[in-house]
Amino acid sequence: MSAPRGAAPAGGFTLLEVLVALALVAVALGAGLRAAGVLTNNAQRLADVTAAQWCADNQLTALRLARAFPGVGDADFACEQLGRSYAGQLRTRPTPNPGFRRVDAVVSDEDGRPLVTVSTVLGRP
Q1: Are the C-beta atoms of residues 105 and 60 closer than 8 Å to each other?
Q2: Best exposed site among 1, 23, 95, 104 by fewest CB in 10 Å?
């Protein structure tokens, strides 16, 4: 039995339209999951960089409080912040003025990738 002439055809979606809509939803969900993963990684990196900053600041503050003129050279140090271990290096270099030394505190993660470098200038006491 066919539809009478002039009657509107039955409404609905074709299989192709449903598949296209499903593909668009899948792409949107995939992009959302990727964005959520990137945000999680960035939050962890921010925590690592903040803890590394604390380590570097603590080492440079200890040098200032020691009130000793540091010798030129490199010295390694270890630091634990927020339950994680960080490796660091104090790099002391001369300046054009012999009464001052530049000290860089470089803190790295467990894989040896530098997280932060903090620099200061220390004067002769």
Answers
A1: yes
A2: 1
What is the torsion angle, in degrees rounded to the nearest 10, for the CA atoms of residue 30, residue 31, residue 33 and residue 34? 120
pLDDT in tens, 41-84: 788 889 999 999 999 999 999 999 999 999 999 999 999 998 88
pLDDT over 70 (residue 123):
yes
pTM to 2 decimal places: 0.68
| Distance between CA atoms of residues 39 and 30, nearest Å | 14
Whether the CB-CB separation of 76 and 87 falls below 8 Å is answered with: yes
Within 1-125, residue ranges assigned H as helices are: 15-66
